Here is the input.
Amino acid sequence: MDQVAVTGAEGFIGSHLVEALVRRGHRVRAMVLYNMFSSHGWLEVLEPAIRDQVDVVFGDVRDPGSVRQVVEGAAVVYHLAALGSVPYSYSAPRSFVDTNAVGTSSVSAPVTFTAPLPPPTSVPATPSVVGCTFTT
Ligand SMILES: NC(=O)c1ccc[n+]([C@@H]2O[C@H](COP(=O)([O-])OP(=O)(O)OC[C@H]3O[C@@H](n4cnc5c(N)ncnc54)[C@H](O)[C@@H]3O)[C@@H](O)[C@H]2O)c1
Here is the structure.
């Protein structure tokens, strides 16, 4: 089956998506934002049999080199890494721009620069940045 990549894999939606992708037979590379506990977030509550099949890579969507390591070779990239709290965005707006705008640009760049632009995939809009899917 195809290699796929998921950013924000340790988050609420990302972890469920990772589980569903593994169950469907995909090889999943999961980007998890590094933290001092080396926690894999919600991925840690998945069944061990599922978790063991996930290639977890610590990374940061604001860092293009880090993004490249995760998306390289992936047929599909599910981009769910984001800062989603609207109230917190008023306290630290720059971090939201860096993660949600610059980060999304970093994730889409290696995909769109190495392959013809795919047809746009529907992205539901909310006040915060919502998950995106890029195909190669
Ligand atoms: N949960 C919902 O009900 C809902 C509804 C509509 C849209 N969305 C959107 O879907 C996406 C995912 O939502 P969620 O609920 O899973 O959020 P979440 O906060 O649980 O997951 C987001 C993940 O992104 C990671 N992340 C943050 N900054 C990062 C960075 N710089 N580099 C790499 N990873 C980083 C966080 O560590 C986190 O695990 C978000 O864009 C959100 O706005 C969610």
